[in-house]
Amino acid sequence: MSYNEPEAKIFSSTNSSYLAQKIADAYGIPMGKVTFSEYSDGEFQPSFEESIRGIRVFLVCSTFPSSDNLMELLLMIDAAKRASARHITAVIPYFGWARQDRKDKPRVPIGAKLVAKLLEAAGATRIMTMDLHADQIQGFFEKPVDHLFASTIFLPYVRSLNLENLTIASPDMGGSKRAYAYSKFLESDVVICYKQRKAANHIEYMELIGEVKGRNVILVDDMIDTGGTLAKAADLMIEKGALSVRAICTHAILSGGAYKKIEDSKLTELIVTDSIPLKQESSKIRVVSCAPLFADVMKMVQENKSISGKFVM
């Protein structure tokens, strides 16, 4: 370690250790040692078991529920700050509470901004995340944000399928920009699903805008929660004459009866990243690891190199 090039260390929260280890292996350094002691009432305290004075630390933690994951990250950031780390980068493959990015009705919080302020108040000097639910969440931070795109790892996989008559689809109007970006690189057609909801996670009506007859369709979304939208969209497209329907979803939340809906649907395959650990196995779910992408960008950040080449979209 030279004075001008301090080493970096990677640490992980409890529930993201499976991914952090893969990132550390791809980066080429061992995982840093951090322990969590717990009181009988459930309160916990992280402790770095090695010196981090004057270096850059990467703290890997996807902030999916429960809120303990977010709290672990905040406490780790505070501990790193008080241990005199030079730079503290919060690596958040899945940024939880991102769906609360605006007031969509009276008397509700803007949870994404609250989380951003908490991370900064704790002492994070940089944020690294992937496929935010809404791009504007970057504006909630006063610190640098590296917003990576999972398309960097999804596009090579899609090309490897060698599908003819390919059509990219968005499961809703809000995802049309993402779908058009994929279609640009794959030189394919685009269709959009128009849906109306009665309440969160409950679709009242869905209609297809565009032609899918005789096409191999790939639905693109940033996350899959209950699986209702994608299952309904896939079934609708098969009814309209699609040859096959696959789905690409960065973050596999898969709550409630999502696994059963996916298995029972007309989806040929669901491709996701490992930003969130799968709760169970499924013959229709394929996981493409995001660890090499994060490791490459983390190394570039550490070496003060440009990361623009990693932005496919």
TrEMBL record:
One of its GO terms (cellular component) is cytoplasm. It catalyses: D-ribose 5-phosphate + ATP = 5-phospho-alpha-D-ribose 1-diphosphate + AMP + H(+). Its EC number is 2.7.6.1. Pfam families: Pribosyl_synth (PF14572), Pribosyltran_N (PF13793). It comes from the Bacteria. GO terms for molecular function: ATP binding; kinase activity; magnesium ion binding; ribose phosphate diphosphokinase activity. Keywords: ATP-binding, Cytoplasm, Kinase, Magnesium, Metal-binding, Nucleotide biosynthesis, Nucleotide-binding, Transferase. One of its GO terms (biological process) is ribonucleoside monophosphate biosynthetic process. Residues 9-123 form the Ribose-phosphate pyrophosphokinase N-terminal domain. The keyword Iron does not apply. Gene3D superfamilies: 3.40.50.2020. The keyword Cell division does not apply. CDD domains: PRTases_typeI. SUPFAM superfamilies: PRTase-like. It is an enzyme of class 2 (transferase). Transmembrane segments: none annotated. PANTHER family: RIBOSE-PHOSPHATE DIPHOSPHOKINASE FAMILY MEMBER (PTHR10210), RIBOSE-PHOSPHATE PYROPHOSPHOKINASE 1, CHLOROPLASTIC (PTHR10210:SF41). This is ribose-phosphate diphosphokinase. It comes from Flavobacterium silvaticum.
